[in-house]
What we know:
This protein is of the alpha/beta class. It has helices at residues 10-13, 21-25, 63-81, 97-106, 110-127, 143-156, 184-190, 229-241, 255-262; strands spanning 28-31, 36-39, 47-52, 85-90, 159-162, 165-168, 205-210, 225-227, 247-249. The longest helix has 19 residues, at 63-81.
Amino acid sequence: DAVVPPVTTxxxxxxxxxxxxxxxxxxxxxxxxxxxxxxxxxxxxxKVSMYVCGPTVYGPPHLGHGRFSLVFDVLRRYLEWxxxxxxxxxxxxxxxxxxxxxxxREGRPWQDITTKCESIWFKAxxxxxxxxxxxxxxxxxxxxxxxxxxxxxxxxxxAYETSDGVYLDCSTVDGYGLLARQSLDSLQSxxxxxxxxEKRNPIDFALWKKAKPGEPTWPAPWGDGRPGWHTExxxxxxxxxxxxxxxxxxxxxxxxxxxxNER
Length: 263
């Protein structure tokens, strides 16, 4: 959710083309959680860790995909030009409701859709000059770790099981709604229960979706199924960048609920 403002430094005004570590020190970014522009502070001197939510590969990319990809590509290139080592992770969501819906609608294997749409995605990104990520994790490669995380949340009492899946109890999350700029009470009053009246709160979201006939599934102690979208990005980002990584971003429309639910 970072937005990069214009930056002018003394070194650039002197027309010195060389990289300058000092440039990173003057970089300020808009922080959605704080609601203001703040200096960039990194976890490790000389290095920046970034996770940018990538595409769900069920169709061709559109203009909005191009915009957020370019924004973070510019940020990454500036940081690298400044002399910093950037580890840029951007995922591929290759299992999701929209992928399954299209596969069933067209009578095609879901893997056929994800493979072809991922190829189209990178062709488009290459076409507008976006650098490839340092790492491009696929959600289907991390399902075992996702099951382990959900088991921890269940054991801690922050998640609960229903007949159709496992949900996070949002009332257990301090300050839930921060990125939506709304309180928990206001979110609950305006929420609608989507297909499951077993949820404790209308805004509780699925960590795991139990299998329906004809859907792809993976094993789990509470029933075969597949991970929820928010679970996927949490596990991939923490596995590849660790707790407390420096920057998390994506399209502005993802701030709520996706990035809030990841938080």
